Amino acid sequence: xxxxxxxxxxxxxxxxxxxxxxxxxxxxxxxxxxxxxxxxxxxxxxxxxxxxxxxxxxxxxxxxxxxxxxxxxxxxxxxxxxxxxxxxxxxxxxxxxxxxxxxxxxxxxxxxxxxxxxxxxxxxxxxxxxxxxxxxxxxxxxxxxxxxxxxxxxxxxxxxxxxxxxxxxxxxxxxxxxxxxxxxxxxxxxxxxxxxxxxxxxxxxxxxxxxxxxxxxxxxxxxx
Length: 224
Hints:
Order of helices and strands: HHHHHHEHEHEEH
Structural class: alpha+beta
Shape: elongated
Mean pLDDT: 86
CATH class of the largest domain: Alpha Beta
Distance between the termini: 47 Å
Oligomer: single chain
Low-confidence stretches: none
């Protein structure tokens, strides 16, 4: 099964689970183990009506107990995630201009290109891409016409949709995107990559030797 087929099955399974179908029912449409379905659908929240349907669907007592136990664990985990997110935001507080500047320097040090003259930051996380696009504009004063975008995408995924997604997020016109790199699916490999990004990995790029050297100076100043 290729990467695109894997992603399609995962999305379909999540949609079916959101409708309240049991894993056994989902397996009638998608041929994957229940353990895989459980991993894919662990964050799909079922309503009380959907849960009651599953419990009344002629399930054995042990299966009923498993569903109820899994439901309680899911609620506990989601509640903790929500609580930790709120606590984390409170710990960070409101970021000052300098805080954002330092955060951008650290992110570029980790994920940015160090080659002289070429500025590039690549990631699949839309939050990081959005932050760094704004960081380049605000702190590096990069002119809009210099900004370029590039996408690394698995074969079989929707390139047009990916371009539209990243363009809307970064406000970089699609006309300023480089040619998309399409990665061939490793069909002969037995290992299936679970983290497939629907919109691929995005790179913010521009060429400016002076800005790049300044960023390298900031990194040196931050990390000694």
